[in-house]
């Protein structure tokens, strides 16, 4: 068996290939960004062929930089931006349309039409999800409704649908020459088309959406001992490597953080913010605006479920502060600017740029800056940007505690913003629980590596993965209870000001 595991991390803004050793340490990495396409306000697309080309490029790049041979890789796992939809031709591999990205709001009319008959929770009992532009099912309908060639091909069995991991697994395992057309349970659970209990496509919902079943991938476990296929890693380091593990990016981070026990939770601070709590073998249907979703499934074992709070804009707010307002030169500069003042000066920023996700689900909301006085300066606004991330996470935790009946006792964190000490301290203060950063913060790619490694017995099981997890730093709450509640009341008031804008 090879001595390393490879993880393809298919993010919203870039692709990476990361090579891990048995201790879960990174031994090689290559990364490439892809274009963000904005045809109209609120619309977001990617070029699927660019994502595939970049995937091949970063695999070659990481191997080339390290001198590791393809035959040294025991297996490949995939993790991906979820809900992003691609429809392509099974014989040519040509997409009928650009990938429609999870953030895209073009399916608003489709979703409103679906809600007209049964409301936003029409499919929640079956799927665990509200009807929202976020999910893939309405995106497929949009492509089929707007491209007659795609519709015809879908009806005749020539067209295939997949989220990004399905698209890349299909190419890695042969593409038009017999590539595996599969999706793991975590990604399938984000389409609005999979039944949470049976882990199968729901025929009634498919009929309502007008999605032909023959275009859908086979639903498989996240950790699959029946390898989907082998990838020929090309270049001078030729080898065929099994492809056998896949997890949507947020579930991958949950696995990478070794949150295997009921009640364990993690928050990922990336483009958006995603807080997931393991709820065990039974799905808990949320009454407070959260998503019920698959955490992971290991071959031959019962699936594990989680509750998820999804926040659309987190790190993207810092980018907006940098690129649109030009108040800082680089994203990390925001911490020093925020530290130039003692508090937010009464100002709050609610980044509802494309509506609000959990727990509100308001596509009519738009961003606001409130509480402005002559006293407020750019330092206060910088602090309000960071605090918005922590307040949004508090909204999720409040809903999670109500839904699960389990009170959060600590929060494991990962993602690009966890190097910001001010944000981490404020997160601990506003939640009133310890916030814990692991030594390895690339937990998303690590989770994908774990899925593939477990499938080929590179790792013995979850206990070994727990032993790999180690703590880098913990922040303890320091804020007085009355100050915490006053600050949070101000935030809740600010959120209401975003409603009914559109």
Order of strands, main sheet, comes to 17-18-16-15-21-22-23
**What gross morphology would you assign?**
globular
Secondary structure category: alpha+beta
Task: Tell me, rounded to a whole number, the average pLDDT.
Answer: 92
Distance between the termini: 57 Å
Q: Low-confidence parts, pLDDT < 50 over ≥5 residues? A: none
Q: What percentage of the residues does DSSP assign to strands (E)?
A: 15-25%
Helix fraction? 25-40%
Individual helix count: 16
Number of strands: 23
Query: How large is the radius of gyration?
Result: 22 Å
Instruction: Report the sheet with the most strands, covering strand number, pairing sense and barrel closure.
Output: 7 strands, mixed
Summarize the structure.
By secondary structure, the protein is α+β, with helices and mostly antiparallel strands. It is 34% helix and 23% strand. The protein contains 16 helices and 23 strands.
